Amino acid sequence: MKFTEHRDSNVLVVKHYEPGLVKINDRQLQNSCFLNQKQLVEHWPCDHIGQLDSQRLDALFALNPEVIILGTGEQQVFPEPKLFAYCAQKGIGLEVMNNSAACRTYNVLTTEDREVVLALIMDV
Q: Span 14-120: which CATH code?
């Protein structure tokens, strides 16, 4: 799916997504990653939902989000309930969806200048 939105080139946005590949501005990635509007972490050691834990969430919290959009691959798969509670304790929302929906949602929220982190599990 190609995203055709014209934006400030200093803002990180998803330009294209297809299974196993995401293009963020001019960077093409095939591995799990996370980003906000200003910072991209190209290698996030979370290759499937079973690896998601509080330590991996802490890496996302370092970007000070108000909400985390978690893409879980081609299918929406929910993490353990304790991880939702962990985010709630920090005052951070956690929304879970498939990667394509996560990319679209991230792009929309960035147009509203929201403090959002997109985390993509690429099922490698």
A: 3.40.1230.10
